[in-house]
Amino acid sequence: MALDTLKSALPDYAKDLKLNLGSVIGNSDLPKQQLWGTVLACAIASRSAKVLTELEPEARENLSPEAYTAAKAAAAVMAMNNVYYRTRHLLSDPEYGTLRAGLRMNVIGNPGVEKVDFELWSLAVSAINGCGQCLDSHEQVLRKAGVERDVIHEAFKIAAVIQSVGATLDAEGVLAGV
């Protein structure tokens, strides 16, 4: 199982990550599509080849082809949006906020899966990429759709753990000269 492989690859000092990885993925109450779409989108957003290599096959197995594609699309479009909206928000000149983005984001309107699932995946990726404006936007859409805070909380816990596992494994690879 991919989770066991990732957990065994983590160094002893990252015992908490081992436990958290098993907890947020292995014991999640999210429906299978929400869980594995979040896992896949976050694995992509983590930019860790090791994490993506280990988690992608299980995500593919647990997602329909449409959900698999939509999770990848969420990671792709949010990689762009998170940079754009975070930058616009961080600049001290408020005039940038009045300019039209002019960036294609059609997949957000028609993701090929339930809108709530895509929004959840977009929120999780935004957590990894640190875009407060996107986090607020996706959280508001989810809450208006009736999604409970504990579901949203679950998604960004998954994001936090996957990101930290990727950072730790990548650092260990560099330190080991791999």
Automatic annotation (TrEMBL):
Q: What is its EC number?
A: 1.11.1.28
List, alphabetically, the InterPro entries matched.
AhpD (IPR004674), AhpD-like (IPR029032), AhpD_core (IPR004675), CMD-like (IPR003779)
Keyword Cell cycle carried by entry = no
Residues forming the catalytic site: 131 (proton donor), 134 (cysteine sulfenic acid (-soh) intermediate)
Q: What EC class does the entry list? A: oxidoreductase
Q: Which cysteines are joined by disulfide bonds?
A: 131-134
Segments forming domain Carboxymuconolactone decarboxylase-like: 94-174
Gene3D superfamilies xrefs: AhpD-like
Record key words, sorted = Antioxidant, Disulfide bond, Oxidoreductase, Peroxidase, Redox-active center
**The UniProt record lists the keyword Oxidoreductase:** yes
Q: Which reaction does it catalyse?
A: N(6)-[(R)-dihydrolipoyl]-L-lysyl-[lipoyl-carrier protein] + a hydroperoxide = N(6)-[(R)-lipoyl]-L-lysyl-[lipoyl-carrier protein] + an alcohol + H2O
How this chain assembles, per its entry, is: Homotrimer.
Write out the function statement from the record: Antioxidant protein with alkyl hydroperoxidase activity. Required for the reduction of the AhpC active site cysteine residues and for the regeneration of the AhpC enzyme activity.
The name this protein carries in UniProt is Alkyl hydroperoxide reductase AhpD
Organism of provenance: Streptomyces thermolineatus
* Lineage, uppermost ranks: Bacteria, Bacillati, Actinomycetota, Actinomycetes, Kitasatosporales
